[in-house]
Amino acid sequence: MCYLYVEVHSVISIPPRLIHRGQASVYDTGWYIVLCCGVVLLTMTVFSGYFSHSTDFEVHRNWLAITHSLPVSKWYHENTSEWTLDYPPLFAWFEYSLSHVAQHFDKEMLVVQNLLYTSPATILFQRLSVIVTDIVFIYAVKECCRSVREEKGSKDLLGHPFFILAALLLWNFGLLIVDHIHFQYNGFLFGILLLSVARHLQGRHLEGALLFTVLLNLKHIYLYIAPAYGIFLLRSYCFTEDNTDGSVRWSSFSPVRLVALGSIVISVGALSFGPFIAMGQLPQVLSRLFPFKRGLCHAYWAPNVWALYNMVDKALSVLGVRLKLLDVAKLPKASMTGGLVQEFQHSILPSVSPSITLICTLLSIMPAVLSIWCRPRGARGFLRCLVVCALGSFMFGWHVHEKAILMAILPFSILAVESREDAGIFLMLTTTGHYSLFPLLFTAAELPIKVLLMLLFTLYSFTSLKKLFRGSLLNPLETTYLLGLVAVEILCEVVYPLSPWQHTMPFVPLLVTSVYCSLGVCYSFIRLYVSLLRQHGTDKHKQL
Amino acid sequence: MENWSLVSICVLFGLTARWAVSLNSYSGAGKPPMFGDYEAQRHWQEVTYNLPVHEWYFNTTDNNLNYWGLDYPPLTAYHSLLCAHVAKLINPDWVELHASRGHESYGHKLFMRATVLVADLLIYIPAVVLYSFYLSEGSNKKKVCTVLCILLYPGLILIDYGHFQYNSISLGLALWGVVVLGLGWDVLGSLAFVLSLNYKQMELYHSLPFFCYLLGKCFKQGLAGQGLFLLVKIAVTVLVTFALCWLPFLSDPGQILQVVHRLFPVGRGLFEDKVANTWCSLNVLIKIKTILSTDTQLYFRPVCLLLNDLPLPAIWFLQASTFSMLPLFLKDGLLVPYVVTSLAFLFFSIYLLSALEHCSEDKLRLGPYRRLLICMPRMDLGRVTKWKFYFSITAMAGLSFMSVALAPPAQLPDLFPLLVSVFSYLHFLGLLLYFNIVQIAEPPQSVRKNQKKSN
To answer: Signal sequence span per UniProt (chain B) (predicted)?
Structure first.
């Protein structure tokens, strides 16, 4: 059924070649080029005078050096630098190919012993590599825009869902901050993810599967959303037909399709891990990929359930000491004044181990995954499940970094421009999620940039979605909460640093930001789940 | 989308671009003993904070005029004093007499850049928004596009936020004058312009149009009645504003003479000439033109309107003016911001204002040129203009690349700056000629509209 829809949709959306000047269409490229150039030029203006202090810069320089200077057998054994290679082999090959270009900029950056090496040429090369690989992202966004459903009726360009989606993705605050100011290759990786999603929306499932497998071999964090892919492809691709009541028709199982999918996964995996399996290094590679020695939370707590858990634990212990129920000496050190440390020891509530987080994550995504098995709603149902998996893993995962919120926000943008309810949840999630990225940029020079870009994106997302869906998308409580973010920002950046507690308890702004944002993110997660289950319920109701 | 949100987005984008350029180098960074304009501004804060008013413009033991002596009118000095008070609160070392000479630090740079941003936000940007919405024609969309294009003008961004100056204050005040005059409030308009003049004496470039416009308006209202009253009001406003600005110096004629001597010295160097180019170009940007038509109606046609009316020549001119300052930007280490902001400006303004589509002979008002070129009747002047524009931009790009990548021959060390200057000069000449011909030869749109209505 979903394929029929997708096919019809793609036929309808192909416009005649001669397009009337007044009508805007996703096939006019002018506006798209302007949006892309705008963001590229903005990022170039920022980086030209800006010397990055982020550790990720050194991480990637180190990986360039390792892959260029050392033979393949040493890649996952090398540990001169503390930033060892902890991405899958395909990413290492990617760094290897980049290093061939890098040697023309500055050969010194490719020497493994040159720890923390930096030079203008190095910075230029690194920044340019992010911008150039963003081409993948730009192409992927274009493909997503083509797949967007929209109502009939002429609108001016700014009101079209595809324009809004393009702006929300290309100018996404989180991506700009993390990739271009902080430094990562997320544009490239999310480009592949969004392209894979776009292919599924367009009914080209094998391509989508291939892209996802490649992505998985580039960065293994995407394992969290693999269940969504797995179940969706199994249910909606391998079983070619459904019964009239929507349940699975076991007889329509197509072994050919299963074999096709399997061979894609295996061949990409072989390309990536093959050399290491042949060298017998697989255990070593896996140990590098999944280091569970780090703590439950990052040094800055990502705004997830564990942040709230830690907060409650801290509050209870402080209360306990005040009420003389607990002995200060018996409490673990650093839990009272130490603030945010990686190895956070819980004093009152039970400790959380990696296996517990895994179980929680699986439990959180189980209903969503079961839902697309029992009542598949085509590619859009899959997309919703993907977002839920990403968000669920963010909520309950082990050592989650706040950047991971982008894995939920970016795909969710597609749903946000198509449904009113999703737009409301999107606004809540995005604003809170983006604000939680603020501590990534902590110097005074970055303050105006992050505030201005945040205002730009937030203002645009609110006004454009409000206009698209004609009316207010948030209830007063939600609006108050979001306005509270402004107060939190002023408190953390202006008021607190001037107060006497800045020296005794410097972690308080981070704590406040983390806990406040986790309330918003948890709320969005619950709302998203409710909407998913409600849809599931409506479908069931329709069958009866 | 509603206007206010679109305009806010444009302003936020403009501010982000400005701050992003701020992160780059400034004039004279790390170049003792004289440094550059950045140090000059810091020095003025030091002088105005620590010394009494009557010593600001004089050569004394504490104030060596050879080291960046004050050479702008008193309003600049008061602004420096205000900034100095703020600087003192944050870090007294920044304005310590003598000891702070050549002070360069991360925190200080942020502070100085912030002062430019605040001034821009309070004065120039609101003027641009009000100007686009109240004094330009076209749909709301077009007005928003005009705001964005004006805010993206690379010349001003690079000079104020790169090189380091406060042109946005004087320019903003002058633009306020234009806006307010356009709304019919002559006294306030002249007040705004006088303030602008008292910030930078370069505004004298703009004073003639303001003067002619206001005088003409007085004549029109009849010197025997309303006109005279208006003239008196304006004269009083101007004199009182001048008096207030120069108040501390009025006690001693020697003071006044010294200040005037500092403002208009003989023998300015080549360096100032390059920055004077900005003024020449910005002059066109907000040149007020008065037309006395046969109906003796007075019109107000700020040339910003050109971005709406004649987008291609306006963009061309503005880009040429930015290009003319290339040697200065290279000296300050602002190559990447120059390239990026120029590309952004060209891209956005050509796309948003549909500059290349409004390129017919009629739209470009090339009638007089057609008459001149009577011997070549078959040429499509619109297309010729478009191709000249492409060629010109390519040549600018080529010259920019050569200035950076190639070393000049030993016998001609200043070859590239010279080529840039000559090229820009030819552009200025040609485009200024064009603008003047267009304005004089053809009746303004409003007159044409009126004539259409009456027929």
So the answer is: 1-22
Look up the ipTM and state it: 0.86
Q: Is A131 on the interface with B (CB under 8 A)?
A: no
Cα–Cα nearest to B127, from B173, B83, B96, B194? B173
E strand spans, B157-263: none
Digit-coded pLDDT (tens) for B261-289: 888 876 454 344 445 555 555 554 444 33
Q: Are A413 and A373 in contact (CB under 8 A)?
A: no
Whether chain B has a CB inside 8 Å of the CB on A44: the answer is: yes
Residue for token pair 């300050």 = B332
CB A239 within 8 A of CB A254: yes
Q: Which residues of A touch B352 (CB under 8 A)?
A: 34
- Closest approach of chain A CAs to the CA of B11, in angstroms? 9
Show residues of chain A in contact with B351, CB under 8 Å: 30-31, 34
Contact between A87 and A220 (Cβ < 8 Å)? yes
- Start-to-end CA distance of chain B, whole Å, equals 38
Query: Which phi and psi (to 5°) does residue A85 adopt?
Result: -70, 110
Give residue-wise pLDDT tens across range A37-94.
888 888 887 766 565 566 788 888 889 999 999 998 888 888 888 888 889 999 999 9
Evaluate whether A350 touches A317 at the Cβ level (below 8 Å).
no
- What 3-state class would DSSP assign to A248? strand
Cα dihedral value A188, A189, A193, A196, nearest 10: 60
Read off the amino acid at residue A274: G
Which one of A21, A45, A123, A442 would you mutate to disrupt binding with B, by most B Cβ within 10 Å of its Cβ? A45
